[in-house]
Each structure stands twice: as C-alpha cells, then as structure tokens.
Amino acid sequence: MIEFGILEGVIALLGVVIGIIFGALPGMTATMAIAIFLPLTYAYDLTTSVYLLLGLYVGGISGGLVPAILMNIPGTPSSVTTGFDGHPMAMKGEGVRALRIGITASLFGGILSLVVLALFTPVLARLAIKFSAVEKFLIILFAMTVIAALSKGKMTKGIFTGFLGVFISLMGVFPDNQTLRLVPSMFSMELRDGFQLLPVLIGLFAFSQLFQEAEKGMKQTMMHTDILKGDQSKKFSFKDFKGQFINMLRSGSIGTFMGILPGIGGSAASLLAYSQCKTFSKDPEKLGTGAVEGLVASESANNGLTGGALVPLLSLGIPGDSTTAVLIGAFILQGIQVGPLFITQNPVIWNTILFALLIANIFMFIVMFYPIKYIAKIINIPKNKLYPGIVLLCVVGAFSTRSGNMVDVFTLVIFGLVGYIFSKLDLPVTTFLIGFILGRDLEKYFIDSLKGSGGHLSVFFSRPIGLAVWVLILASLAYAFYDNRKHHKETRV
Amino acid sequence: MKKVLVLFMVVLLAATSLAGCKKEETTTFDGKNVRVVIGSTSTTGDSYMIADMAMRYLSKALNANTKVDAVGAGPAFETLAKADPDGNTIMMFHDMTYLGISFGAFDEQYGLENMVIGPRIGLNPGGCFAASADAPYDDMKEMADYLAANPDEIVRAAVEAGGVSHIGFISYYEWVVEAYGQDVADRIVVVVGGSTAEKSQMLWDGNTDIIFADYSSLLQYTEEGVEDQLKMKFVALLDKIDGTDIPTFADLGVTLNGAPFAFSKEFIIYLPKETPQAFVDELDQAALEISKDQAFIDDMAKQKYKVAYLPSADTKTHIMAKRDSLDALIKAAPSLDVLTVQ
To answer: What is the DSSP letter of A92?
Structure first.
C-alpha cells in the first residue's frame, strides 16, 4: 500500500527542483534546503511532507555536480571529487557530456541505494551496530588514504597539506571537556566552533580561483573560443558507460554503505569511491584529467548515500548523515517516532518513503538530464559578468551557513587567500580540504575508541572487521607510494 | 534644465534612502521582524522544538514575524550581547544559558546579569538515565547497591560535559558519596558522550553502561518487540514525568542543599541588556495568553513538554536562585577530569 496522488507528485517535483537549485548554489546544501522547508511541512500531512523532504534531499545531493563540473566549485561537500574529472571535461568542451554522465551515474547510485534500503534494511541495521568507534576510525583513516592517492608526483606536499587540514579542523572547542584549543584568545568567541566546512570549501575553490583570475585580469569571455567549441564528436551517449558497470556498482555500494554507518559523512563516501576507482582503474594516470570513470565513481557514490543514510534512520532512529538528522525533526513534528519498531508499526509510511525516493530519483533525472544543455551555457557568460554573481552567491551561502554569522563570510575570504597562496607555492588544495573534512571525525572516533577500551591502543587491532580495514588501508597506501615512485621514475626518464 | 532635473532626482533619492535609515524607536513587537536565536544548532532537539512551537503562538499574540535561528550556544550569546535593545533580536534557551558559565565554558560577560530575563515559557522534565535492558539493576539506587555488593565492578555513565546531564550526574555522584561512601562513588565513572544518537551507540557497543538522554527520544527503545541488543530500560528521571512510574532522583533520595533534587530544563526568553521594560511587559502579556491556549498546551504535551508560564520578574528571581544553588554543587563536585575513565 502506497499513498500517492497528483498533489504528492507535484510536491515531489517541486522538492526536487528546489533541492537541485540549493545543491547547485555554492554554499547551499540539501541539509539547508530541508531545514528551511521543514516549517512548511506543519501545514501538510506526513505523506505530503515525505514527498517534499525526500525530493529536496535527492535534488540537493544531485545539484552539487553542476558547479563542480562547470566551474570547479563543488556545490556541496560530497561533490568535491566530481570536479576532479568533471571540470577538466568541461574545459575540453565536454561540459554537457560530463553533466549527463554525472546525472546518469547519480540516478544509478540513487536507485541502487533504494534497492538496498528496500530489501536489506533490517540486516544492514544490525551490521551497522557492529561498526563501533574503532571500525569508524579505521574507515575514516581508509578514506584519508585518498590523500596519498591524489598526491602523485608531490607526495610530501600532499601529505603536508592533508595534515595541515586535519590540524585546522581541530580548532575550536574540544567537546569532551568543553575547552577551547588552537584558537587565539582574541577570537575565542568567533572561532569557538572552529571554521565551518562550507565557507572553507567555497573559499578554497571559488574565492581562490577569483583571486587568481583577478591577478591575470578579467577577460571578456569565460574561455578561449576554441575550447568552448570543443570536440563536437564527444557528445553524451549511453555508450560512455561501457565498461563502467563494475565501477558504478562498487562506487554506489561504497556510497550506500558509508551512508549506513552513522556519523560518516557523504564527503568520505565520494572520496573513498574515487580512491578505489583509481586503485582498480586500468588507466589510473588518466584520473584527474577528465576521465569518465572518476566522474562516475564520485556521482554514483554520493547519490548512493541517500538510501544508505535512511537505513539507520528508519531502523535504529539514528541519522546516517547531517541531512537525515534534520529529517528526524519532520517525523517527530508529525508525531512519528523513527526507530527499531518504525517499519513494523508503519508499513504504509515505509512503502510511501520507498516510493517517494524512487519518484524523487526519476524526477531528478528528468529535470536535470534534458535542460542541462541550457544550464551548461553558463560557461559562455563573460567572466566580468559571471564572477560578481559567483561572489554574491558565495557570500550569501557562507553567511547562511549558521543562520547569519559574519565570521563565516570572513572564513570564506581567508580560505580564498589560503587557496591562492597554496597555488602560488604549488601546494595541493584538495588534500588540505580532505584533511579538513575528515579531521574532526578522525579525532572523535580515535578518542571514543580509547574511551571504550580504557586507553589501550591495542583496541585498533582487536576486532575482525577492523583488521580487514587495516589490510585495505595498507594496500591503498602501498599502491599510492608505488604509483608515486613510478611517476617520479617516468618523469626522470 | 536636464542637469537640474538629474540633480533633483539624486537629492530626492538620497533623502528617501536616508529616511529609510531612520532608526525605529517603537517599544513594541507589533509588526516587527523578530529574530529568535537559540543555543543549539540542532533542529530536532528540545531547544528548537519548544522555541519553534512557542514562537508560532507568540508571533500571533505579539503580531510579530518571528524566525527561530538554531545558531548554537556561543553565537546565540554573542548575538544577544551585540544586539540593539530594540525588540528585533531575542534569545530563547534553557538552563545552559547560565550552566555554560558555571562550568567555565563561556565567559562571565555572557552571564545572566548582562541580559534582560523575560518570561519562562515551558519546561522539559524529560532528562533521564537509561541502561541496557539486561543490566543487573532496575534503577540507580539498585545500581549503587550493586556496586556496593560487587567491589570489583564499575559502572560507566555517558554524559555530556558542561550540560544538564553533567549536573544530573554530579548530583547523583555526591549522593552516592554521602550514602554509600567514596569507594562506591569512585567506581561510577564518566564516559563523555555527545548527542543522544552517539550515546545510544555507545550503549549498544558496550562502551558505556548507562546513558543520559531525553525521555521521549529513548522511549521507543524500551518498548516490547525491540531486539535484545537495542533494548533499554529507564533507571532514573531527573524530574517527574506525568503518566510514568519510573523513579525520580527525588524518589531515590538524591538531595540538593537538603531538599529533594529535581531538575527540569526551563525555557526562558532572554533579551539584550537595556531592553526597555515595555518589551518585557508585552512579552509577559503574550506569554500569559498563549499559556492558556489549549492548542499550545496540547502541542507541547505531545512531546512530553509542559507549558509553565512564569512572569519575567519571578523568572529572574527563580533562575538566579537556581543558578546559585547549582553553582555550589558544581564547586563541591570533582571535575570531569577526575570522574572520567582513567
């Protein structure tokens, strides 16, 4: 039994469209979209609310690929890796193709996670509980090995900026004793919660780019005309996915699985999927230069997260990510308690959620796939007209990160300068960002593991799942170092 | 002529703009946009839920457009400290407003003395401790008995540093020291936890033995049909919740300054320092009005919250006295550095 009607369909479509807009605007996220529209659901019943909120969720996660590909500005933290290959494709004149590949991979990831949610929720919820702080720490550590994988040719610099990112992420209050650390006393209130991820992200990617462009002087067009015309023979075709099925399945599964584990965010999912894509790729050196497989890995992973994050939410009452944490509020306000008895006590709502997720994914595909060629024309807007708009969006996005806090706008500018200085010193920005994204979780689960074990470091080697993750970490690092050495030898020759 | 016309238009435009900048000096919420900051960033916790529900009713009573912003404790205090006393910015928050300072997490400049205390709107009596369903004790008195009878055992309690759970824990700890002796108290150790979701997972992982959380958020895990690993039981409430027979701290004999210990989170409206009394009076009037509104009472009761209007003058006396008595408890109890697992 499913509750669905024309009104629900329209609401879901509306949610998807608004979600895409939020995801596509730098600094706006799916979480913000849901938080903003949450009060609107008071006027609706639970079914209508579910269609709206899941539409916003799927749209918000998917929209992030647009600025990541076209402007190398990730719309959301989980689309950081989308820009690695998507933007080089756009620079080669394959913007529409890259966007359509990304959208199709997103649909695949979303549907895969939906199937997993529908069929295996109770089993996976039990599995999720077996992942204690120890396993979560090791998974975050595993995701951090992407730093080594991305640092080919400049391993020392990559690792340095990665650790610098971790260090900066630890600024602010240490929650276990509420003590301020690594913050100058004059900024004790402003930086109490440290630097926020979104302003840091858009500062490093968008603002630093603007500074670099300002240094060169604004040109009247975005790119040289010959680049814009591109290689006309490379249009999107479903044949682009030839040989990508295993990659999509692996990346979608990684995304879904990371969603299932509470407390591990979407950024870690796409980072891990990207690093595994590189490990298993036949042409790893092509990743980062506009390879279809890199784009496919990133997008199927971050949309795989959507269904995955609903598994612990609906079966344990524990949100899988920050967005589903806001969704809990919607259920509570409607008088529904999500938790271990939710599925058995609310079969109609459960079926409706699955159907809403399916509809939202299909709407996302339709809404994005066809009109995208018009959206891609943004690349044709002259820089002197486009960049002021980007500055405005970034500032508004940063300001709204914590409901209007100027510190986040200053953060945006500061990290814009940091990104600019990094580019001058040839230091990789991406590895810094990865360290920043994962740093707090890495520390949290490290400390939680020690708290649970009474301070014994041997706890990290005492659990079977943990040992398996150690093997993956070591294999991933060994491959990255081998690849780096090979690259050095080749460049010397 | 054309130049004169352009000049005239520029002057007119500038004058209009400046007129728009004229500071509004009305001492009423009527027709105003009011930003309500709360000391939590979560939109699912009691701080947001109660503020949101209250503001939906208060905005009608005040004829104001209210917007609840979940900015977090630090930014909320800072916003209130810097806001003009013009009724455009207020804060609604619970006891963490003063506890954060008592525990040393925030500077004295954000103390109650530096803000105007408005009316109390509601209470959340739902603070509770829960254990796994198979724990060898059913309440926290039995827990102390269990430790007294088993000198090799310890109990780990997951609480949040510097919060209401911290207060709940140290009041219990001090009672155990008094009633059972230091040896038993020393074997109740703290594992610092974060959100309810994190603390629940710590319990399921076996990394803690009891957790502190909100009653309504844990209720589902105590029901029939929940599988063994997830199943919990309540072992104590900080205050009485209507319709439950779970022992409260007061039932167990826990006292504070000789009186039975009971702690409900009190949700109070705070205004910037120097806010004119007219605003406070208007809020008092509106808060009294909504406290009699059955729809508001029912909405709050659905989440086990209570509408508990108290006029601003009484709220001020009450909350300052509460702060002072808890300050004494905080000073007497060992710090978390001593109480945590070594």
So the answer is: T
Helix (H, G, I), strand (E, B) or coil at B192: strand
| C-beta separation of B69 from B36 below 8 A | yes
Tokens of residue A416, six digits: 């814009």
Contact A398, A407 (CB under 8 A): no
B205 or A247: whose pLDDT is higher?
A247
Q: What is the pLDDT of residues B53-69, one digit of tens each?
A: 999 999 999 999 998 88
Class of domain B130-262 (CATH, top level):
alpha beta
Cα separation, A418 vs A200, whole angstroms: 10
> What tens digit of pLDDT does each residue of B18-41 get?
555 545 568 899 999 999 999 887
Q: In B118-268, where does DSSP find H-type helix?
A: 140-149, 164-180, 182-186, 196-205, 215-218, 249-252
> In this structure, which amino acid lies at residue A53?
L
- pLDDT for A224 beyond 50: no
Q: Which CATH code for domain B29-125+264-330?
A: 3.40.190.150
CB contact residues (below 8 A), chain A span 156-185, against chain B: 173, 175-178
Output DSSP code: residue A190.
Answer: T
Q: Give the sign of the dihedral formed by CA A419, CA A210, CA A58, CA A94.
A: negative
Query: In degrees, to the nearest 5, what angle opens at C-alpha A296 toward C-alphas A294 and A298?
Result: 70
Sheet-wide strand order for B306-310? B65-70, B33-38, B89-93, B265-272, B115-124, B306-310
Give the span between the Cα atoms of B341 and A452, in whole angstroms. 9
Residue B274 has pLDDT above 90, yes or no: yes
Gap from B342 CA to chain A (nearest CA, Å): 7
Report the amino acid identity of residue A357: L
- Name the token pair of B165: 């759970």
Structure confidence by residue, pLDDT tens digits, A317-373: 888 777 887 888 778 777 777 888 888 888 999 999 999 999 999 999 999 998 888
Question: Is A316–B230 a contact, with Cβ atoms under 8 angstroms apart?
Answer: yes
Task: Report yes or no: A432 and A161 within 8 Å, Cβ to Cβ.
Answer: yes
Q: How confident is the model at residue A389 (pLDDT cuts 50, 70, 90)?
A: confident
Residue B55 structure tokens? 């503001």
| Residue of chain B with shortest Cα separation from A31 | B43
CB contact under 8 A, A173 and B161: no
Distance from CA of A130 to the nearest CA of B (A): 7
Beta carbons of B44 and A35 less than 8 Å apart: no
Q: Which conformational region is residue A137 in: left (phi greater than 0), alpha (psi within -120 to 50 degrees), or beta? A: alpha
- CB count within 10 Å of CB A254 equals 28
Count of pairs with CB atoms under 8 A, one residue in A, one in B:
117
Please give the structure tokens belonging to residue A228.
């814009």
Let me know if the fold of B29-125+264-330 is the same as that of B130-262. Answer: yes
- Domains of chain B, residue spans: 29-125+264-330, 130-262
Interface with chain B: mutation pick from A178, A195, A321, A410, highest number of B CBs within 10 Å:
A178
Q: Is B111 helix (H, G, I), strand (E, B) or coil?
A: coil
